[in-house]
Structure formats: structure tokens, C-alpha cells
Amino acid sequence: MYVEMNAWREILAxxxxxxxxxxxxxxxxxxNPATRRRLKLDKYYPEAGIAIRFIGLTAKGQGRQxxxxxxxxxxxxxxRAELCRINGVQLVLVDPLEDxxxxxxxxxxxxxxxxxxxxxxxxxxxxxxxxxxxxxxxxGRATKVxxxxxxxxxxxxxxxxxxxxxxxxxxxxxxxxxxxxxxxTKLVTYMVGQRVHHERFGEGTITKLNxxxxxxxxxxxxxxxxxxxxxxxxxxxxxx
Length: 240
Hints:
This protein is an alpha+beta fold. It is built from six helices and eleven strands. It folds into two domains: 2-162, no CATH class; 173-240, SH3 type barrels (Roll), CATH 2.30.30. 42% of the residues lie in helices and 20% in strands. Strand 7 and strand 8 form a beta hairpin. Helix 1 runs antiparallel to helix 4 (125-149), helix 1 (2-15) packs across helix 5 and helix 3 runs antiparallel to helix 4 (125-149). The longest helix has 25 residues, at 125-149. The two termini are 35 Å apart. Residues 172-188 have low confidence and may be disordered.
């Protein structure tokens, strides 16, 4: 569960880059009319009009729910979904232990619906011009993740979880390792567009070589990173 949850945190961080992210939030409109209590969303992206609810999670030490508790949970879930619908929010249910590709299909559908609702809604033209392209880009990023998951699901999810840990640690997109090679050193081993495998980050494509002795690699299950070529060669295997 730990790996899957971190992988999903990374998937959502990539998909909704540039959007406001609210965690464990209870919007003013998300009030259960039966109890007058606010319901929660695990993640909410207000500009996108999309919310995430993680399901299938059991707190440590929590036993099986009674029939009455299960009914209460079901009623809250149905109320949450209906309130989201009424307020124009696409609610996506994510079970981290289920096939991530199927879960991503639902997220892609929600992004498509959100784009359509925004285009047809009464938001200002300025708002639409800003966020409609952003939603389109978010769908593209989610589609890219969907594609890489098809190669080796378990390994790719593990790589995504590791990328999330890097993100939490504050690592940027570029990882510079030690000093670059002298400028007169030619990189004859690699070329732009070449596929390689890194012992930690997995498979990727070389996107840039420069005279300073650095190479940049866009990893399938991670972000683009830059390395000193002299110190990374023992960690790379050429695939093409």
C-alpha cells in the first residue's frame, strides 16, 4: 500500500502541475444534509473542477465494519458524489490496490468532462483561456503516465513512488552529480534520442548532450534529470 499510495501522489502531482491542490479539504458546499456535517475530499483541484477520493484504505487496527457502519459509509459516499455533481466537480475514486491503468482511465475521462464543462459553462473568457489549455496539458501528462505503466506495471509504480520520495526530499527536475567533464572531452558513447536504462531511475531517452560534459535523460517513470556523463556511465546501459 505504501508504494502504491506514493506512486499515486506522484501521478497526481504530475497530472495537475500548475493547479491549486488542496488536501483533506471540506469545501463549504460539501455538507451532508442528513447530518449537517461536512464531508471530506482527499484531494481537490478547484481550477480543474476535479476531486480525488481514495477508497479501499483501512486504518491500522481497524476491524471489519458492521453492516450498519458499512451502510453509513455507503450513504456518505453517495451523498459526496451527488454534491460534487451538483457543484460541477468531477469526483474520481481511486483504489491504490487496483490496476492503476484502469484508475487512470477514470481520471482521463474526468479531465475530458471537466474540459467540456468549462467550455460550456459561464466562466469568464479570461478564465477559460487560462484553464482550458491547462486541462488539455494535464490530460496529456496523464496519458503519458498511462502509456509508461503498460511496460511493466509493478516496476513503473515503484519508480513513480521513488520519484515522489525525491519530490518530498526537495530534489528538482535536474540532478547534477559532481563536476562536469572538461570541455574538450567528447561524449562518444551516447547520442540524443538514444534509449538507455539507469540502475535507479529505469528506462529513458537522452534529450540533450552539452559541451560541459553533461547529459539529460527524460525517464519514462520519472522527470528529466541531468547528470555529469563521466560519473553516470557505470550506471547506464544503452538500449539502442
